[in-house]
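W.,

You were right to be curious about this one. When I first looked at the sequence I had no strong expectations either way, so I just let the prediction run and decided to look at it fresh. Below is the sequence, 326 residues in total, followed by the output.
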Amino acid sequence: MSSDRRAALKKLKNLYLSPKIDLNDFRLRMDDVFSSVFLPNNVEYEETSYRTIKCDCISPVMFSSNRVLLYVHGGSFVAGSRAAYRPFVAALANATASKAYLPEFRLAPAHPFPAALEDVQHVFQSVFVETETALSLSAQGEGFAKTPEIIIMADTSGASIALALLFSLNGKYRESIRQVVLFSPWLDFSENNDMFTSKKVSDEIFTAESVRLASEHYTHAENWSNPLVSPLKATRDLLLDFPPVFIQMGEKEIFYDDAVMFQSMLRNAGRKCELDIWKNMMPLFQMVDEELSEAHLAVEKIGKLITEKDHSHESVREIQLELERN
C-alpha cells in the first residue's frame, strides 16, 4: 500500500462512528481533520441564515447566474458541519461553476428525524425563491427570464436526507432540480437489508454496525423502512418525474449493492441513474484530494457532468431569443 493511500485511509477513518467514542468528540474530530482555512481556486464564502439555519454561501470566481448547488453533508446523522465540508463543497462549486449553499442543519440524537429534513426543506425553498427573484429582476427589459436550476449533492447519511427532500418536492420546486449527485449514499436502514443480517459486513471505512448505530441515533426502528429515511423503500409514485441521478463511489463499498438496486428502481420507473464506480477506491475518496489524485479526477468528472450541459441550454436560449425578435 502506498504512503498516500495509507494517509487517505487514516484521514477518512475519522468518518467512522464508533460506539466507543463520545458524540461531541466525534464531531470535533471531524471538524479538526477536514476543515481548512484555505479554500481552493480563489473560492470565497460568506455566512448567511435562513431563519435559524446557518449556511455557507460559497462562490467560485465564475459561476452560472441561474445555477445553484445545495449540498447536504454526511456525518452519520450526528456529526458534520460547514467547517468540515467547506473545502470539499468549494471544490465542487468551482468544478461545476455554481454558487453553492452548505446548510448547518440540526443533528441527531438531540434533534432526531425529521428535524434535519425540515431544515434542508426550508433552506431549499428559501434559496429557490431568492434565486428566482434575482433572476427575474436581472431579466427586466431583456424579454427573457432564466429559471433557477438546482443541483442537489449529498454523501453517505446526507443522501437519505437529500432524497427525502426530493420526495417531498412538487411543482416548480421539483421541476427546478437539474441533477442529483450522490457520493457513497446510505439508502436502506430497514431491518431486512442484507447488510444488517449478515455477519461482519465492512469496507475500508464503514461497518454495518456503525451504520446501524447512526440509524438508531437518527430515528426509532419503526421509521427505518420509511422512504423518507430509507430511499430504497420509495414507491414508484415517488420516483415519477425524478431528476437524473449520478452516484459516484468506490468498487468495494458496503453500500454498492443498495446503489445498484436504487439504479434499477429509477430505470424501471423510466428515470436516469448512472453509477460511476472507481476501482480500488474507498468511500468518500473525493474528500482527500491532498492524498489521492483520483479525488481531483472524480471532482473534475462531476464538473463536466454539469457544465457540458450548459452549451445545449445556451442554444435553446438563443433560439428562443431569435423567435422573440422575429
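Here's what jumped out at me. The beta strands are 44-50, 53-59, 67-72, 99-103, 149-155, 177-183, 245-250, 273-278. And, maybe more interesting for your project: Confidence is low (pLDDT under 50) at residues 312-326.

Coffee later to discuss?

I.
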